[in-house]
Design brief:
The chain is α/β, with parallel strands linked by helices. It has nine helices and 41 strands. It has a nine-stranded parallel beta sheet with strand order 14-17-20-23-26-29-32-35-38, with no helix packed on it.
Length: 459
């Protein structure tokens, strides 16, 4: 039997106090909505429809091509949203799963179990529930020997009903052939004047049909309405990610201080030290050592590479390369095999060839450095004249003297050398020495003359 999924994502999320639609707030590298859609895909659904409302166009633009959207306008509650979602489905005859778009902790396995329970019990509706020590704010599950009798929102609950600890997660499975009639029958007769999806349960019960429930671990039921809840679910998601990596063979000194987003790849055998933040499409190869204190976004860290105390954005660190401490790799930085970028070095839009080194206090921008070349401390590629950027090319086995300024565009040939303190404005041929600096002259007695002049000026 086919499965169709409706995700309810129309809410504004006022308590988030964010300019973004609530479901677009991110936790562990994915939006809340993306986490829900990843879980839903495990069901192999025939159709997935997202009901959007607040910032509808922005939310819809984030959806993959296999997910459709429909606008709920005006917004008259969850029952109305489900009806709008049903209207967008091509087929209503299968099993329909309804999920809120702000529950990133729900898993694909939990949804599989819910659908299986629904079919095994022969129920027309099945509710995912959790048991909470403090159920305040949640709809209570009212049961009897025959199953679920109703779901009562807290604002409408009696004192006895408020004592119930089993609560609704707002995740449901319905018989699609019956859901439409049920949604048409419910009314907004409640304190909010809205159509509650929970009222569908009472409709089915009143019609003599069976409604079942499946209880899942409490964390599954956490929705996100505030930044405090967003931080809470992000911590749980990161813990899941780290646990999976540890089980796969990744070593971590202290997993509680490692922050790895969902789409990052870390190969078995890698070592991760504390205060590491890996985000975007970052990948870490086997045997690599990352941290402590590393931030890498959309980066490739090759096998055996070592990265310490560094910030890297859209950079490639090749096999066995070394980065840090205190290095900054900007977009377009590429370190080939065995290259080194050391302390207080910034690389941008440049390639550092295999076995080459930029060890200390240098800026390399818009440059290509060959193999087995050494860049002396304090070297700067002067690549920008205020209007345009220019390239520097440095060959193989070159020795760039400390404190050299390379005024781009300029080419330094293979096996060439530049003298320390030089300002190189012209190409240096292969094997040549490039020197450009004024002769030193010493002025005797200068310190005494300067002292006397300072005294006169202060009198």
């Amino acid at each position: 039997m086919s499965v169709e999924v409706i995700v309810l994502a129309a809410g504004k999320g006022t308590r988030m106090r964010s300019e973004d639609a609530k479901v677009l707030n991110k936790a562990a590298g994915r939006s809340l909505l993306d986490w829900v859609l990843v879980a839903a895909r495990v069901l192999d659904p025939r159709e997935v429809t997202v009901v959007v409302g607040h910032q509808a166009e922005t939310v819809a633009a984030t959806l993959a091509t296999d997910v459709s959207s429909v606008i709920q306008n005006p917004q008259h509650g969850t029952g109305h949203a489900a009806a709008v979602g049903m209207g967008n489905l091509k087929d209503h005859t299968g099993t329909i799963v309804v999920i809120p778009g702000d529950m990133p902790l729900i898993t694909g396995q939990a949804l599989i179990d819910l659908v299986a329970h629904h079919r095994e019990t022969g129920a027309v509706a099945t509710v995912m529930t959790v048991d909470l020590g403090d159920p305040g704010g949640y709809g209570r599950i009212v049961r009897d020997d025959f199953g679920v009798r109703s779901i009562v929102e807290e604002r409408d609950a009696t004192p006895d009903q408020k004592m119930i600890t089993e609560v609704n997660t707002s995740v449901y499975v319905f018989d699609g052939t019956l859901l439409g009639d049920a949604l048409s029958a419910i009314t907004p007769d409640n304190s909010q004047g809205e159509y509650y999806l929970t009222d569908v349960v009472e409709f089915f019960v009143g019609d003599g049909k069976t409604v079942s429930a499946l209880s899942v671990p409490p964390e599954m039921g956490i929705g996100v309405n505030t930044h405090r809840q967003l931080a809470e679910v992000a911590g749980i998601l990161r813990a899941r990610i780290n646990a999976d990596l540890l089980d796969s063979g990744v070593w971590m000194l202290d997993p509680s201080r490692v922050y790895i987003d969902a789409d990052v790849t870390v190969e078995p055998g890698a070592k991760i030290y504390p205060e590491v933040l890996l985000s975007g499409a970052t990948s870490v190869g086997p045997g690599a050592v990352v941290g402590p204190n590393v931030q890498a976004e959309n980066c490739e860290i090759g096998p055996g590479a070592v990265v310490k105390q560094a910030v890297m954005i859209e950079a490639v660190v090749g096999r066995d390369a070394l980065v840090g401490p205190f290095a900054y790799l900007r977009p377009g930085a590429v370190l080939e095999r065995g290259a080194k970028v050391g302390t207080y070095v910034e690389i941008k839009g440049s390639t550092v060839g295999a076995g080459s080194k930029v060890p200390h206090l240098s800026y390399v921008g818009n440059a290509t450095i060959g193999e087995k070349t050494n860049i002396g401390a304090g070297t700067i590629t002067v690549n920008y004249d205020g209007y345009a950027k220019y390239s520097t090319t440095i060959g193989d086995r070159v020795r760039i003297g400390s404190d050299t300024m390379l005024i781009a565009p300029v080419h330094v040939g293979d096996d060439a050398v530049t003298g320390a303190g030089s300002v190189i404005t012209q190409d240096v041929p292969d094997g040549a020495l490039g020197v450009s600096r004024d002769p030193q002259r010493n002025i005797d007695g200068y310190a005494e003359k300067r002292r006397k002049r300072a005294k006169r000026e202060s009198d």
